[in-house]
């Protein structure tokens, strides 16, 4: 959109002729950063569009966006009931565990799935209006954040009901052999920077997957194919104490690699642990921090090289 | 100062889903850009070696056959397509009006659509709120503005879109053909607004097949043929070469009157375009 003159004119200008000098190249880091900056600055546009998407989805339904909350409540309650019995866990602690897990999972998988379609579904706009790509990525992340906040209502209700159980120091999620948890206290505030970290990572994931998917249309399919696998591999409906309790002599042994090598687990844990008063471990933050840095570096490089190609590819 | 500089620019489209083999044979035809065959993915060279410069006050008409690259050139000038080879530089806020339906949402009300469309064209919410009444008055849609867009007829949609588009203050206005599918009474009103809009804008590039609109809005012209510039110059000169006859000879009486020129056709013969 706005680019600044870098022309050095040393020849007399003919009317109608293009002035001499080098014009700025499409492929430069400056153009990539300009896109990000201009995209963030168009806050009115992407926030409006994000809201519009939510309203659109529930238009003409009586309860509207409240359906987001209701469907989350039903799913969390049913799964919580079933799995707490399967794993002999106390429903008072297992239901909050599963609820926060599901809410966060929806945000994370949303970044992957909706992110890979972010530019494809905005094809018309991209081909008709010279807006920064970041606008469409922010629209997607903003929409997912709105969904997240709607789902938080379920968390608040469950917290109100089960607060005594969660606030008790030393509570365990499963009845036998569970890891004693510190219980809810002031460290719950760590959930706020954690959500910031999720959103920051969500943006690069959406940008990166969005650009890749416009060129390689198999990417959204791959993500759809592995998403349910990822759901069951991540400790959401099960907890890591269950695995550890099955093998008490080794504390799980090699089996802990099943979740430690899963990035989604770390992103989930930085926000779930504070929200239900579980043990907070710094190593999750290191993993998330590493992903933030490496992910953004990769995204900036991809933005530099392929940002201007997206309108050709969609 | 607003300006667009494009130098030796190429726009090459990769066509990923086309069967490479069948397109390997070089396609020769009068319609469309050249289809390159040297790489694995077939490429359509929609624009080749375009060099042009647009400054404040320029009113450029784009003419050429279907598929000659007019719309692609407008997209290049707006910054939607960055040249695959060559370079371009755009200084100033561009308001591209290519398709009146774009950014319009069927499920939301006319008012909300005015808002969204305005935001897309680079206006702020506050600026649009000031314009809403003016747009409502122009479109004559009245209470329909509260209704979702899917209740609108095609003509009503065009009215709404034209209303929003002509209410903005663009620095560089890029218009594509196809604005004009409304009833004639409304068209006269829209025409005035369009002329006002062009007067307000810093620079204009207008692609059209309608000589009369071109004569009314533009001063110079560029003739595109198979993706490159065939001729450029004053509007009359280029149109004469393109159509093979002087555009003023076949102009309608009513339009001639509006343009303030002598018409050679008798009064009442209507439009020719």
Structure description:
Chain B: This is ABC-2 type transport system ATP-binding protein. Chain B: Pfam families: ABC_tran. The complex is a heterodimer of chains A (314) and B (273). With 314 residues, chain A is mostly helical. Chain A contains 13 helices and no strands. In chain A, helix 1 (29-41) crosses helix 12, helix 4 packs antiparallel against helix 8 and helix 7 packs parallel to helix 12 (282-306). Chain B is of the alpha/beta class and 273 residues long. Chain B has a domain at 1-17 and 42-93 and 172-180 and 204-256: Rossmann fold. Chain B is built from nine helices and ten strands. In chain B, the strands form two sheets. Chain B has a six-stranded mixed beta sheet, sandwiched between helices. Chain B starts with a strand and ends in a 14-residue tail after the last helix. The model of chain B is unreliable at 20-26 and 263-273 (pLDDT under 50). Classes of the chains: A mainly alpha (314), B alpha/beta (273). Chains A and B meet through helix 2, helix 5 and helix 13 of A and strand 1, strand 3, strand 5 and helix 3 of B.
Basic shape of chain B: globular
Number of helices of chain A: 13
Termini Cα gap of chain A: 20 Å
**Gyration radius of chain A, rounded:** 23 Å
| Total count of strands of chain A | 0
Largest sheet of chain A: none
**What portion of residues of chain A belong to β-strands?**
under 5%
Strand content of chain B: 15-25%
Question: N-to-C terminal Cα separation of chain B, in Å?
Answer: 34 Å
Helix content of chain A: 55-70%
CATH top-level class of the domain at 1-17 and 42-93 and 172-180 and 204-256 in chain B: Alpha Beta
Counting structural domains of chain A, the number is 1
Order of helices and strands of chain A: HHHHHHHHHHHHH
Find the CATH superfamily of the domain at 1-17 and 42-93 and 172-180 and 204-256 in chain B.
P-loop containing nucleotide triphosphate hydrolases
Which CATH architecture of the domain at 1-17 and 42-93 and 172-180 and 204-256 in chain B would you pick? 3-Layer(aba) Sandwich
Class computed from helices, strands and strand pairing of chain A: mainly alpha
Trace the largest sheet of chain B across and list its strands.
Answer: 6-7-8-4-9-10
């Amino acid at each position: 959109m706005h680019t600044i003159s870098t022309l050095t004119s040393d020849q007399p200008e003919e009317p109608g002729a293009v002035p001499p000098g080098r014009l700025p190249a499409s492929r430069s880091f400056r153009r990539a950063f300009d896109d990000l900056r201009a995209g963030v600055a168009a806050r009115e546009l992407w926030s409006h569009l994000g809201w519009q998407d939510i309203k659109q989805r529930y238009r003409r339904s009586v309860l509207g966006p409240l359906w987001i909350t209701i469907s989350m409540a039903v799913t969390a309650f049913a799964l919580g009931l079933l799995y707490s019995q399967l794993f002999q866990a106390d429903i008072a602690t297992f239901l909050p565990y599963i609820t926060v897990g599901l809410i966060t999972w929806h945000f994370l998988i949303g970044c992957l799935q909706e992110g890979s379609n972010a530019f494809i579904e905005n094809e018309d706009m991209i081909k008709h209006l010279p807006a920064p790509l970041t606008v469409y990525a922010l629209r997607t992340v903003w929409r997912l954040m709105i969904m997240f906040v709607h789902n938080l209502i379920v968390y608040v209700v469950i917290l109100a009901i089960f607060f005594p159980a969660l606030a008790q120091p030393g509570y365990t999620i499963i009845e036998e052999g569970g890891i004693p948890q510190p219980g809810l206290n002031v460290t719950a505030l760590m959930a706020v920077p954690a959500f910031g970290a999720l959103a920051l990572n969500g943006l690069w994931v959406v940008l990166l997957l969005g650009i890749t998917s416009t060129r390689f249309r198999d990417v959204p399919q791959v993500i759809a194919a592995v998403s349910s696998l990822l759901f069951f591999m991540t400790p959401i409906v099960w907890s890591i104490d269950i695995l550890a309790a099955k093998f008490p002599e080794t504390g799980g042994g090699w089996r802990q690699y099943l979740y430690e090598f899963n990035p989604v687990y770390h992103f989930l844990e930085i926000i779930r642990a504070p929200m239900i008063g579980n043990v907070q471990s710094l190593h999750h933050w290191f993993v998330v921090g590493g992903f933030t840095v490496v992910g953004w570096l990769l995204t900036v490089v991809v933005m530099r090289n392929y940002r201007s190609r997206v309108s050709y590819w969609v | 100062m607003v300006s667009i500089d494009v130098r030796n620019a190429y726009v090459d489209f990769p066509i990923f889903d086309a069967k490479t083999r069948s397109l390997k044979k070089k396609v020769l035809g009068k319609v469309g850009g050249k289809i390159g065959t040297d790489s694995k993915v077939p490429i359509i060279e929609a624009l080749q070696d375009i060099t042009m410069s647009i400054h404040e006050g320029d009113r450029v008409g784009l003419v050429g056959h279907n598929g000659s690259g007019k719309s692609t050139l407008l997209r290049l000038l707006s910054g939607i397509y960055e040249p695959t080879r060559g370079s371009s530089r755009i200084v100033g806020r561009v308001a591209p009006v290519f398709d009146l339906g774009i950014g319009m949402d069927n499920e939301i009300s006319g008012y909300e659509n005015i808002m969204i469309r305005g935001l897309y064209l680079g206006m702020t919410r506050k600026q649009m709120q000031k314009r809403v009444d003016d747009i409502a008055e122009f479109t004559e849609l009245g209470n329909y503005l509260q209704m979702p867009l899917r209740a609108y007829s095609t003509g009503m949609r065009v009215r709404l879109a034209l209303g929003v588009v002509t209410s903005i203050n663009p620095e560089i206005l890029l218009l594509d053909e196809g604005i004009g599918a409304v009833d004639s009474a409304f068209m006269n009103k829209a025409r005035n607004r369009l002329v006002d809009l062009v007067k307000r804008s810093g620079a204009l590039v207008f692609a059209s097949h309608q000589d009369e609109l071109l004569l009314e809005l533009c001063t110079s012209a560029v003739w595109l043929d198979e993706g490159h510039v065939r001729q450029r110059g004053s509007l009359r000169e280029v149109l004469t070469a393109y159509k093979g006859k002087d555009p003023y000879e076949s102009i309608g009486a009513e339009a001639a009157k509006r343009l303030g020129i002598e018409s050679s056709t008798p009064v009442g013969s209507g439009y020719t375009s």
